[in-house]
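Changelog-adjacent note: as of this version, every example in the card shows the full chain rather than a window. The one below runs 93 residues end to end.
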Amino acid sequence: MKATWEDTIIAESDKTVVVEGNHYFPPDSIKREYFSPSDTHTTCPWKGVASYYHVRVDDKSNQDAGWYYPEPKEAAKSINGQFRGKESPNLQP
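Full-length structure tokens:
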């Protein structure tokens, strides 16, 4: 599975975890040179608190383009630290 934005692969793995139909990428599969931390945080009732990333490719920026759960609740332990992009990073098999 690949996550792309602006025709650039920003994450790639054959070991994504699928939760609620969404692919979560292992932390070591994201291309960190395109990511920077965001101050945004949201809370999911069963997953916990999500931390966000901005994605930047060349001179284009995608604010809060994806998130991960650094300390998920017990029910979501399978996605601990895994990246999920919103619809704007495109996912491709």
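Structural remarks: Residues 17 and 78 are 7 Å apart (CA to CA).
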